[in-house]
TrEMBL record:
InterPro entries: P-loop_NTPase, Thymidylate_kin-like_dom, Thymidylate_kin_CS, Thymidylate_kinase
Keywords of the record: ATP-binding, Kinase, Nucleotide biosynthesis, Nucleotide-binding, Transferase
EC number: 2.7.4.9
Domain of life: Eukaryota
UniProt entry tagged with the keyword ATP-binding: yes
PANTHER family: THYMIDYLATE KINASE (PTHR10344:SF1)
Protein name: Thymidylate kinase
Phylogenetic lineage: Eukaryota, Fungi, Dikarya, Basidiomycota, Agaricomycotina
UniProt keyword annotation of ATP-binding present: yes
Length: 217
């Protein structure tokens, strides 16, 4: 009988235009080159029926009540849980572009109570590592494409950033489930090197643990 070591669950978080998607793709190809089985995921996943409602909302093609859209973002994660669990169990590492921290940070920044925002995401699979790409909202704003979607406004992004830091401060800085702050205002290659360093530590540590934890419980 062969025992498969589980994959690592790695989340990348940050403000809009912080470079998450670019860095996630770079990380994916670096892991592939190192012969690590890897899958890229992204939330919101706009391809599902729930994701299509979220997409219409973000592009201001529909208006949805704040609490309702919050629960749809959470549902969009819950509908992926069995796929996350089976992927990790099969030994594939997941690089996930946004997760529940975005869910809480954006809705709480709009004025919903933080504890209320957190509760629907409690007990989702917990990331082994969350990489927070930290960037000042004015640098993010100066990057291309900013302002196209609903939340891409400097004042809101400022509040979002504060809540991200608050959520990260609750998590350990080392070991399982840790939160790593990465200065994303630097050039692409320097940021990519920092991420690679953090990811290598986590993939190494993960081989010692059997199953993924549960978020916020
Ligand atoms: P994206 O630009 O990464 O596709 O994300 C779309 C927007 O949705 C972005 O402004 C962050 C926001 N968001 C939430 O408000 N709640 C969530 O749960 C997630 C995953 C994203
Ligand atoms: Mg965006």
């Amino acid at each position: 009988m062969s025992t498969v070591q589980r994959g690592a669950f790695i989340v990348i978080e940050g403000l809009d235009r912080s470079g998450k998607s670019t860095q996630a793709a770079l990380l994916q190809s670096r892991l592939q080159n190192a012969n690590v089985s890897v899958k890229l995921m992204k939330f919101p996943d706009r391809t599902t029926p729930v994701g299509k409602m979220i997409d219409a909302y973000l592009r201001s093609q529909s208006d949805v009540d704040d609490r309702t859209i919050h629960l749809l973002f959470s549902a969009n994660r819950w509908e992926a849980v069995s796929s996350i669990e089976s992927t990790l169990a099969a030994g594939t590492t997941i690089i996930c572009d946004r997760y529940a921290f975005s869910g809480v940070a954006f809705s709480a920044a709009k004025g919903l109570p933080l504890a209320w925002c957190r509760s629907p995401d409690v007990s989702l699979p917990a990331p082994d590592l969350t990489l927070f790409l930290d960037i000042s909202p004015d640098i993010a704003k100066s990057r291309g494409g900013y302002g196209e979607e609903r939340y891409e406004k400097e004042e809101l992004q400022r509040r979002v950033r504060n809540i991200f830091h608050q959520l990260g401060d609750e998590l350990p800085k080392d070991g399982a489930g840790r939160w790593a702050v990465i200065d994303a205002g630097r050039d692409l290659n320097t940021v990519s090197e920092s991420l690679w360093h953090e990811v290598a530590i986590t993939i190494h540590d993960c081989t010692k643990q059997d199953s993924v934890g549960k978020l916020w419980q």
